[in-house]
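Need residues for this backbone.
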């Protein structure tokens, strides 16, 4: 039994990993199967391949991944259309079989949309109410700040008057002590 490689990855190995993973994505296969395939080709574990993909290589192929997913989706659509054409061409095909969407499905869908619209309307109304409340609270805060500023001014004036009275009383006390 040969030991698995643990040396550094080369650019060629990264490229092979990316090509095989993208191919599996396009074909609708799993990434785990891609990691197994790459691991066998490079004499590395599937876990090492998965780690390398997730930690480094995947970040370099974001647009490639999106393209592969898009191609997979288009292939599925094409296969569905081809299957539909072959069913129509088949003489045993009965057009009265159940359609892809039933009337009940459509009704349920419309009902869900109506519920979502009501929910959006409720959220919108609540948002308006909360905006009004925020505005009122902001006004109260501004008024309270103004009142506080006025009280600070009055307090300062009273403090100054208090110190003036104390000075007058101190002078009066000294005069009385001197006259005795």
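Answer:
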């Amino acid at each position: 039994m040969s030991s698995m490689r643990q040396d550094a990855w080369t650019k060629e190995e990264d490229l092979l990993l990316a090509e095989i993973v993208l191919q599996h994505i396009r074909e609708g296969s799993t990434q785990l199967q891609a990691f197994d395939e790459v691991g066998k080709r490079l004499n590395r574990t599937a876990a090492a391949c998965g780690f390398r993909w997730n930690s480094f290589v995947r970040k370099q192929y974001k647009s490639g991944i999106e393209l592969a997913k898009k191609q997979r989706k288009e292939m599925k659509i094409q296969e569905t259309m081809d299957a539909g054409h072959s069913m129509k061409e088949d003489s045993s095909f009965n057009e009265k079989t159940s359609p892809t969407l039933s009337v009940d499905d459509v009704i349920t869908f419309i009902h869900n949309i109506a519920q979502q619209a009501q929910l959006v309307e409720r959220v919108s109304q609540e948002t308006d109410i909360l905006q009004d409340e925020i505005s009122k609270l902001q006004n109260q805060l501004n008024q309270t700040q103004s009142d506080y500023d006025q009280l600070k001014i009055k307090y300062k004036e009273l403090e100054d008057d208090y110190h003036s009275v104390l000075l007058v009383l101190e002078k009066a006390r000294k005069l009385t002590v001197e006259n005795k």
